[in-house]
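Subject: NFACT RNA-binding domain-containing protein structure
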Amino acid sequence: MAKRKTSMTAFDVASVVRELEELKGARLVNIYEVFENVYLLRLRGTRDARVIAEPGRRVHETSYDVTGKEQPPPLIMALRKHIRGERLSTVKQLGFDRIILFEFANGYKLVVELLPRGVLALLDEKGSILHASEWREMRDRVIKRGVEYKQPPPAAVHPENLTEDVVRERLAGASGEVVRVLVRKLGYPGEVVEEALFRAGIEKTTPVEKLGASDIGAIVEAIRGIYRESLEARGYIVYDEKGLVLTVVPFKPSMYEGRYRAVESISKALDEYFVELEKARAVEEAVEKLEEEKGKLRAAISKTEELIREYEEKKVKLEKLALLVAENAALVDQALECARRMREGSGWDYIPGNCPGVVDVEPSRGVVKLNIGGSIVEVDIRSDSARLINELYRKIGELEKKRSRALRTLEELKKKLESLELEIREEARRARARIRRKEWYEKYHWMFTSHWLLVIGGRDASQNESVVKRYLGENNIFMHADIRGAPAVVVFAGGKEPPEEDIREAAVIAACYSRAWKEGLGAIDVYWVWGRQVSKAAPPGEYLTKGAFMVYGERNYIRGVELKLAIGLAEENDAPVVIVGPRELVRRRSLVYALLAPGDEEPSKLAKRLVRLFSSKLGDKAYLAKSLDVNELLRRIPGPSRVLEIARGEAREPPRPRAREAEAEEES
């Protein structure tokens, strides 16, 4: 089977660059390192865009709203200093290599190399390296501060420059399979060469020496056609026999007919593919040992089936033979009587020629070989037809016992295989479910109200500070339980006062994650104000600690908010999502939920118990609970609790808005 694609090719880059050219003139709002060596560029122009850049692997637009690290590393600080706020003037592919260059209006350039061990580098107006994700000295170039940036020597022929003469020149003197030689000599990826050969009607294992002039012409036309398709910036995701992603390409993969899915843009295809790639890897790792066991079971089943066939064939032969002996009993007895007389009178050697039906003898074993109805049978010279028939049926009985035992073994093996295949499917589903991209707000307490307003709250003083400083603004709502030691809660209202229902739902988050829960209270008051009423500035002569704020003006109170929190397990893209909120809200959006109140059960024990309880309620969806990270559930439990209710949810609404993004921009 072909290897799974793990990084973009030069054809992919050409396609993505054509798509990214639409972003010319957009302003770089910010840049982040979201994971180690994975960067996110936020751009705002005629449309907003997020571009993910992972040196050595990929560059494309992404729909995932991921956040940067709390403390930006030095490289990010340097990039922000030089290019944040600048307009994008050019996006281009360097030569026909796996390198993308973003040039900004101030002359600075950001280079992303997708080559093995590639780097991300910031260049000044003269093309000298200012900063890079890694400093490196190589055989043909150096990545070092102050040194002029040089790309590697070109490895591939640009498809626009590909002609029959170029191909003939490159193939001169070469030998071997045409697919391997073309990959090596032209520098194109295997998936492109294989598709070109398929379109040209040439078997990929054809010796390159046997290519004719028309073949070379067809190959050139096919490769150039693939390149032209790539510039249309559409995407196609290819799947293997198990339904797992195999590759993603910017051209129609005709060689995989029936096993690919078209996607409207190459970035969307790449974005989806790399998430699914993580799932495919997780599935393969999870079931690797089980698949080995399955292979052994299949081999054992095959061997047992062969043994059963062997027993049945021998049994049929013996049954036919027993019938022949019975039908020719007199002849058998006469032949054996004759053989005994000849042995006594003349010796063994005289038996075959003088006793009808005897074709051979084996004196050492005391055996004569009789031809009975065309079948040769070995018989003890002292025997007779009756004893021979009895002996044949004794052997038939033994074969039947062996066959019966083998059939039982076969049934057990098939049951084990069926059980193992079920286990493999379940483990694959659990492995898939464990892979889920987390949204930026998931590091906080979070919830979406009935009218899909995002609510977030700090988990500690540091997060309270972050929530207010980064997300509150004048037009959002600040909410706080009327007790010392409570999260700063922000409701993304966008300047409009939310319905009372949504206010009350958000108040549950403010109340339940406050100190009131740990103190075992039954209810508490919660107030809300507009962001413009909240300030970090302390009154003269006073000091505000980290996570503390001043609230000015009239407060709007929600009295007696009950400390009851529903924790539900919902499904999103075959993965489990933990949601919290008031009982009715969570019931609508979850598959199963628990209603909690302050109590005595420690969160760590409760989280494990909830996984078991959820699994028992979910039936064929139990894998969602089993694949759940217990720590994710633990993070949503406010403190020592008691379970008031465990029930199936309705799941008639998604756990969060699908086609909508939180109206928060991380611009700091």
